[in-house]
Amino acid sequence: MLRIPTCHAGSCLSVMVVTVCLLAAPVRAQSDDPDTLNQRAIELLIAEKFTEALPLAERYAEAMKAQFCAESPKYANALSSVARLYVKLSRLTDAEPLYKQALAIDEKAFGPYHADVAGDLANLGLFYLDADRDADAEPLMLRAVAVVERVRGQDDFGLINPLLGLAALYEKRGQYARVERIYKRLLASVERRSGSDNIVVVHWLNYLADLYCGIGRFRDAEPLLKRELTIIEKTHGRDHWEVIKTLVDLAALYDVEGRAAAAEKLYRRALAIKNDKHPSVAGWLNLLAEDYRDHGRNAEAELLAKRVQAISENKFSPYRL
Fold first, then answer.
1. In whole numbers, what is the pLDDT of the chain averaged over residues?
2. Which of 29, 164, 189, 254 has the fewest CB atoms within 10 Å, counting from its CB?
3. Which fold has domain 1-174?
4. DSSP assignment of 74-122, as one string?
5. Residue 315 CB partners (closer than 8 Å, separation 6+)
6. Closest CA to 284 of 260, 267, 259
7. Distance (Å, whole) CA 11 – CA 30
8. How many CB atoms lie within 10 A of CB 3?
9. Alpha carbons 141 and 148: distance in angstroms, whole number
10. Is the model's pLDDT at 55 over the cut of 50?
11. 3-state secondary structure (DSSP) of residue 275
């Protein structure tokens, strides 16, 4: 849900970037086989079992070093995966030298202009950004963007992470015009790749709408949210859980603007959708319940609270407004 009118979601960026797993997809083998170690590490990483994943990723890295040598890009790739797990486990002092080592290996192997080098630069830059080392982060992410543009072009997926990192950095500085340019660029890029009505466009529309709401540009956000709604309904139908989310976002915008009747109409429509299966629905309904309480509508808030409880218990909810 859009957080209005406080700072936009990107400012709390964990960064909402596209996380690319650098571990290669393996084939099942014996338990000490590198491919098996890698596969199991991936499974544990996805399951957020970072402590269990770490020793497997470390063993995989050592296997790559033994098999291909300490200057191999395969070893660099494995080091980045270990570094990522160190970050997940808050072992930041252990992660930084591995990110740097991976970058040095790939630069020596490929030269300064290569997609793998760009990925290493982005990894290190985002690491510094999360550590609030903005002065160290910015030049690395700018360089990553420049490398990808040179070797892959203006619309390559490799631009997403460093550009989102730069957007987060500029937002922390209050440089919203620069953030807007980045989000517009990413939106235009995905439209060129996938078409203007493709469902993947919704994600990038929401980035831009969220920014506008965060800085009080509600009139600019409204058409973006309406476009999101149109694309989602066309792709998934009118009863999809994402329709609920977008209706609530748009209603919240109207609420902040003082357009109570328009907001209420959308809230009612969202509540009428019989789709409580997605866990995120509970969060949106709970926020709406809080809004009802703030306006003295306690009976309606109680019905919503019961519906939220039913969702959390994985039960079909009979509580409808």
1. 87
2. 29
3. 1.25.40
4. HHHHHHHHHHHHHHHTT-HHHHHHHHHHHHHHHHHHH-SSSHHHHHHHH
5. none
6. 267
7. 45
8. 16
9. 11
10. yes
11. coil
- Burial class of 220 by CB neighbour count within 10 A (0 to 12, 13 to 18, 19+): middle
**The residue type at 218:** F
Structure token digits, residue 194: 């996938």
Q: What is the pLDDT of residues 285-313, one digit of tens each?
A: 777 788 788 888 888 888 888 887 877 77
Read off the pLDDT of residues 135-155 as tens digits, 9 standing for 90 and up.
Answer: 999 999 999 999 999 999 999
Q: Which two tokens stand for residue 195?
A: 């078409």
Maximum Cα–Cα distance for the chain, whole Å? 68
Percent of residues, the chain, with pLDDT higher than 70? 86
Tokens encoding 99: 């990110």
Which CA distances in Å does 170 have to 11, 128, 173, 181? 9, 14, 5, 11
The model's pTM: 0.81
**Residue 246 tokens, joined:** 């977008």
pLDDT tens for each residue of 203-246:
999 999 999 999 999 999 999 999 999 999 999 999 888 998 89
Pair 289, 308: CB distance under 8 Å: yes
> Following DSSP, what letter does each residue of 148-166 receive, concatenated?
HHHHH-TT-GGGHHHHHHH
Nearest-10 crossing angle of helices 200-214, 176-194: 160
ω into 5 cis (within 30 of 0): yes
Annotated domain spans of the chain: 1-174
